Amino acid sequence: MSNPQPLEEEAYDMSGARVALTLCVTKAREGSEADLVALERMFQQLGFESTMKKDPTAQQFQEELEKFQQAIDARKDFVSCAFVVLMAHGLEGHLEGEDEQMVNLENLFTVLNNKNCEALRAKPKVYIVQACRGEHRDPGERVGGDNIAMITQDSDQTIPTYTDTLHVYSTVEGYLSYRHDKEGSYFIQTLVDVFTKTKGPILELLTEVTRRMAEAELVQEGETRKVNPEIQSTLRKRLYLQ
């Protein structure tokens, strides 16, 4: 039996500019201001050029992201990484704009893919989505007592259209997401705390976010609820923010 091969420790080059766009509906979303403050602090600490837009309509979600893409492609300097934070009421696959119209998340995600944003081709693109994905509530379950793909080197060959992307949802498909009226959403506050105080590749940091959220007991309408984020990754390398 042959010995397993060690993984190559290749990481994304983070020496260039880091850019972030936050689109947040605050209307009828008490506590969202606390999330914006926390995110601004995080982006400042991690060296991101951060833009925040409050109360976009459904159409403005799309327009602001397209403006963000155009500004990135127009830059003369090297861009290392982009973060997009989307915060609103939502249903699975959709966000609700300030005008109560819905925007398709998939349409937002395609704006920065390897086909549509040349400056971010093969660069990490991180989407953080703080929104409900349905009406289900999780009371939790009692508990008793990874395959890793090899990382390949960059070359002059082609890459898939949808690589180098990380989608981080505040909850799993079909379930509610929770937000405190004053302290903000548990997901955003936990994520900011971990990202600003812990070092390591981003997927390890997100595992810690998931662990903390899974252990927490949230009370809604007098009932104990459980919630955990969902992480979907096509990253090809390790992504370090610190």
Automatic annotation (TrEMBL):
CDD domains: CASc (cd00032). Residues 155-242 form the Caspase family p10 domain. It is found in: Cytoplasm; Nucleus. The keyword Hydrolase applies. One of its GO terms (molecular function) is cysteine-type endopeptidase activity. One of its GO terms (biological process) is cell differentiation. PANTHER family: CASPASE 14, APOPTOSIS-RELATED CYSTEINE PEPTIDASE, MUCOSA ASSOCIATED LYMPHOID TISSUE LYMPHOMA TRANSLOCATION PROTEIN 1/PARACASPASE. This is Caspase-14.
